[in-house]
Write a structure and sequence with these properties.
By secondary structure, the chain is an alpha/beta fold. It is built from 13 helices and eleven strands. Strands 1, 2, 3, 4, 5, 6, 7, 8, 9, 10 and 11 form an eleven-stranded mixed β-sheet that branches. The longest helix is centred in the C-terminal third of the chain and has 26 residues. It is globular. 53% of the residues are buried.
């Protein structure tokens, strides 16, 4: 496959793309906005190791100095981890502006999908997707991740919609956008910190090969748009639903009291939930991200065999 001149590839990713080897995209807001330093950089490094161990080259995406980067060096991961929220949280609307200004941006699910698609990467692993926020009937607060899933042909492997969201409405929105929701090894869409949400996924698939075959068929048929693969948090890290729901309710009340909304909402709520759960939510977050990377790498490896 030819390299896109608008993308700055790491040498490892460039070589893999040119030779049509398995590659998976990784986002960078989890580094800048999702976790504190140094856990963020350590987790990013562990994700890269897990991807390689499971047969795929990791391609962390970000905007650095205005360059659209697919594949970061250890030094760049360290730089982004230390920069934290000084780096812009970049979604679709921000990419061209940051590029024109020569600025730094950490990519969300939506913008990582865009960079991955531009670079020729078809599988992307993240923690959880954004979605329809609670109270969206009043605020209209709906993540750009859902729109991107409806238009950009990349398979996203996640642990479901974040528990801070309205999962039922998120699934309704995805159905409207024609996005198939696949649950790996279960019938329900997981709820990020917990393995069960009470909401049924569109399809259950039990092997990475089955998922890869569905992705290949979607591509061969020329059906545009993404595919959502939900992968439950490992059993030993799954949190009690009552505990996490109570923490989320408290965090939402605090966000409302402080007037926090828009793209600042998710980072605030995740930090508040971490504080309210004594750090247990961060442990679950790290475990589920690593679990998703392993599954995404296996899917990419199976896709390569086809």
């Amino acid at each position: 496959m030819k390299l896109n001149p608008n993308i700055t590839y790491s040498p490892e990713v460039a070589e893999a793309i040119k030779n049509d080897m398995p590659v998976i995209a990784l986002e960078s807001t989890i580094i800048s906005h999702g976790m504190p330093y140094p856990e963020n950089v350590e987790t990013a490094g562990e994700c890269c190791r897990i991807a390689r161990e499971n047969g795929a080259v990791p391609a962390t995406c970000a905007i650095l100095g205005g360059r659209l980067c697919v594949g970061l060096t250890d030094g760049q991961l360290e730089y982004l981890g230390k920069a934290g929220q000084k780096a812009a949280k970049a979604s679709r609307r921000d990419i061209a502006i940051l590029a024109s200004r020569g600025a730094d941006g950490a990519t969300t699910v939506a913008s990582t999908m865009i960079l991955a698609h531009m670079a020729g990467v078809r599988v992307f692993a993240t923690g959880g997707i954004g979605g329809v926020h609670r109270g969206a009937t009043e605020t209209m607060d709906i993540s750009a991740d859902l729109e991107e899933l409806g238009r950009t042909s990349v398979a996203v492997v996640c642990a479901g919609a974040k528990s801070i969201l309205d999962i039922g409405l998120t699934l309704e929105y995805l159905e409207t956008k024609g996005v198939p929701v696949i649950a790996y090894g279960t019938d329900e869409m997981p709820a990020f910190y917990t393995r069960r949400s009470g909401f049924k996924a569109d399809y259950r698939m039990d092997t990475p090969r089955e998922i890869a075959a569905a992705l290949r068929a979607r591509t061969d048929l020329g059906i545009e748009g993404g595919m959502l693969v939900t992968n439950p948090v490992p059993e030993e890290y799954s949190m009690d639903k009552a505990v996490i729901d109570r923490a989320i309710d408290e965090a939402l009340a605090e966000a409302a009291a402080q007037g926090i909304r828009g793209k600042a909402t998710t980072p605030f709520l995740l930090a508040a939930v971490k504080e309210l759960t004594g750090g247990e939510s961060l442990k679950a977050n790290i475990a589920l991200v690593c679990n998703n990377v392993a599954l995404a790498a296996k899917i990419a490896a199976e896709l390569y065999k086809m």
